[in-house]
Amino acid sequence: MAGLYVHIPFCHRKCPYCDFFSIASTDLLLETYPSLLIKHLNWASSHKQSGPFETIYFGGGTPSLLPPESIADILQVVQQAFGITHNAEITFEANPGTVSEQSLAGYRQAGINRLSLGLQTCNDKHLATLGRLHNQKEGLDAFSRARDVGFDNISLDLMFALPAQTTAEFEEDLHSFLELSPEHLSCYGLTAEPETPFHRKVKSGEMTLPDEDFYADTFMLVHKRLSEVGYEHYEIANYALKGRACRHNLGYWQRQSFLGIGPGAHSFCARHWGSRSAVPPDLAAYQHALVNAKEPTQHLEVFDQESALRETIYLALRTRNGISDSELQQRFGCTLQEAFPKAVEASAPWLIYNNGRWTLTPAGWLIFDRLILPFL
What we know:
Shape: globular
Distance between the termini: 26 Å
CATH class of the largest domain: Alpha Beta
CATH superfamily of the largest domain: Aldolase class I
Number of strands: 17
Number of domains: 2
Mean pLDDT: 94
Strand order of the largest sheet: 9-10-8-7-6-5-4-1-11
Oligomer: single chain
Helix content: 40-55%
C-alpha cells in the first residue's frame, strides 16, 4: 500500500499544547501555498516516486483554512501524477470553527471521504484552556453539518487529563461524544510537550496537569466504555467501529511506504530495510527549493536489519493486531523470544502470546513507553 500525507502548516492561532509545525495564516499564504504543494507533487513524480495512492491524509495545522477549490486542485494533480485507487481513503482534518455547511459540501465534492474533526472536548471551560477557537455548540454543529452534507466516515478527537478536569466532567464529555455516534475516535491524554506554552506553564508551576492515577483511570475508563458499545481499541489512542479503522495510520504502523509533502512532512520508503526522509519545517526554505527545482526533502535514516526489526516491533505492538512470530521469521529470520528474550520476560504479564501472535494488553499500552524500552 502507498500513502500520501499532505501537511497544511497554517492556523488562525496555534494551540498552546501543540508541537506540530504550524504558523499563523494570512490570505496571501493560503492563496499561494497550494501551488507549492503542486510543484512538490510534480517534482516527486518526476523523480520516480510512484503511486497509485490507496490513502491520502491532509493534516496540519488546519487544513480547513484552505478552500475546497484548492483541495480539489491538489487531488486532481495527485490523480494525474500518481493515480488514486478507486476505493482510496482520503482523510481531511478540520477544526469546527473553520467550516461551514458550504465548505464541508465542497470538500466532499472535491473527493474527501473521511473527515477528522478536532472537537477535543465539549466543555467550554476546557476548550478555552486549550486555546480552541470554537465552543461546545460550534463543535456539535460542525459534526451535524458534516452529516448533513453526506459524510458517513467521521473521526473525532477527544482529549482527557486536562488541567483541573474532574472525572465527572470527562464522563460528560464521553457521553456527549458517544451520542454523536462517530465511526472513529482518537482519544489522547494531554501532555505538556517541550517548547510549548503549556510546557513552560507546567514547569513554572503556573499550571498543573492531573496526576498519573487520574490519567491511568481515565485511559482505562475510555477503553471500557468504548469497547462496551462496539468500538475496537485497535491502537493505543484509536478506536473504530468495525471496518472503520484509519487505513492511512495503519500504513504507518505496518511500515508501508508513504510520501509526505509540505514543510514538516515525513516520508518512508519500505524498500530493502526501509529509509526515512523529511521536509524541514521551514516554509521559506521549502519555497526556495521548489522555485529553484531543487529537492525539498532531507534524508534522515537508512535502516539496517537490526534497526528495522526494532522499529517493526515498536510499531506493531502499538496495535491490537500486534505481530506474529511467523511474520518475524519470514522477514528477519527470528522469533520475538529469540531476538529479545529478556525484554519478553520483563514485559510479562502485559505482553500476551496467543496463537503465534504477540500483543500488549490495554494496561500494557498505558505504560507502553516503559515496556518498549528493552526492545529498542
